[in-house]
Amino acid sequence: MILIILFWISAFIIVWAMGGYQLCLKLLARFFKNRKLQKDYDIQPTVTVMIVAHNEEKVIGAKLENVIDNDYPADRIDYIVTSDFSTDATEEIVERFIAGHPGLRMRLHRAREHKGKTNAQNEAQKLVQGEILVMTDANAMFERNAITELAACFTASDIAYVTGRLAYRNTDNDTAAAESVYWESDLAQRETESNIRTITAGNGAIYACRNALYFDLDPMKCHDAHMPRRYGLQGLRALYNPDAVAYEKAGEVLEDEFRRKVRMNRNILPGIAEAIPCMNIFRHGWFSFFYFGHRTCRRLLWCAHAVVYLCSFLLAFRSCFFRLAFGGQTIFYLLSLIALKAGARNKLLKMMGYYTMTIGAQWMGVFNCLMGRSKATWDQAESTR
């Protein structure tokens, strides 16, 4: 009986995370169709744009040119580049750029400790004077109106955070195309969550928060994931603005994408524990519902798949249903591995392989957590530059 209960609970987690929750949000979007993102382009708070870089000599020059080419009032914006112990020409390129633009309010901050992106942000934020802090990565290129779009969303005092829309530029590549399909589905969910109440996670390429509400975070964690969570628990709102657009290359090499996802899952086990206070739906309302479907169930996929597979194997002798369940999963995983190994051209097989790779990255994240191998520092994927 226990095995059957575990099977169905785990099966529900998988189905809800990968289909049920999305369908529910589509129904909710129809019910709340009159709720739309509110913007006010006249408020124009002071803005500081923070660019985080580690050995970004290939893209930092283009990033600086891109970010200053915006339509926000020049007297209400400044810039800070925070370098996490770059050992290439990144810092020299930034210094030359600043020297070549004497009228531009831009500074370079060299992180005092080599502890990764979050630590570099924590250090540089102490120098920020703007009311709104916009944070971005060195390889993410903004649309000209992106900063204006982010700032225009801070229309109420309970709005603490706004994230924009990251679009991938290289969807003609198989690996990048698979990530893009997943990502577009994720963005559609965020739009509904935002319109109803609040989102549960942002994106490191383009997001903003009220500088007064910034908080130092453990270097092992990421602000784009933890800010919406922290603010949601405080009754504040985190919004998604699809008109604030940044462009980036997705990983074109499967190994790059796998390593990126392993890095994203470096805190997967602590993340499960952190979800517990978010589950009080009587206190947190919509935030709890969104967090369970969008974050908690996804973080549990590695475990849910293992439990479903093991339980169906152990129960296979009891009924035809569990024999079919075990056989179906075995075929799915075998086809996925073949697709990954052979580079299948069939779209369905490619998506199966990509999904299985994602679950594998979660398992590697769990392993790294247990073995103490998770680290805050990072090496960028070359295929995304």
In short:
With 385 residues, the chain is of the alpha/beta class.
Overview of this protein structure:
This protein is 51% helix and 14% strand. The chain contains 14 helices and 8 strands. Strands 3-2-1-4-7-6-8-5 form an 8-stranded mixed β-sheet, sandwiched between helices. Helix 1 crosses helix 6 (174-196) and helix 1 packs across helix 11. The longest helix has 30 residues, at 2-31.
SSE inventory with pairings:
Layout: H1 2-31, E1 47-53, H2 60-68, E2 77-83, H3 90-100, E3 106-110, H4 117-125, E4 132-137, E5 141-142, H5 146-151, E6 159-168, H6 174-196, E7 206-210, H7 223-233, E8 237-248, H8 254-264, H9 268-274, H10 281-284, H11 286-299, H12 301-314, H13 320-342, H14 347-371
Keywords:
385 residues, eight-stranded mixed sheet, 51% helix
How many angstroms does the end-to-end distance come to? 52 Å
Largest sheet: 8 strands, mixed
Helix content: 40-55%
Tally of DSSP β-strands: 8
> How confident is the prediction overall: mean pLDDT?
94
User: Regions with pLDDT < 50 over 5+ consecutive residues?
Assistant: none
From the alpha carbons, calculate the radius of gyration and give it in angstroms: 22 Å
Number of helices: 14
* Assembly of the depicted chains: single chain
| Strands ordered across the widest β-sheet | 3-2-1-4-7-6-8-5
Quote the beta fraction. Answer: 5-15%
Order of helices and strands: HEHEHEHEEHEHEHEHHHHHHH
Overall geometry: globular
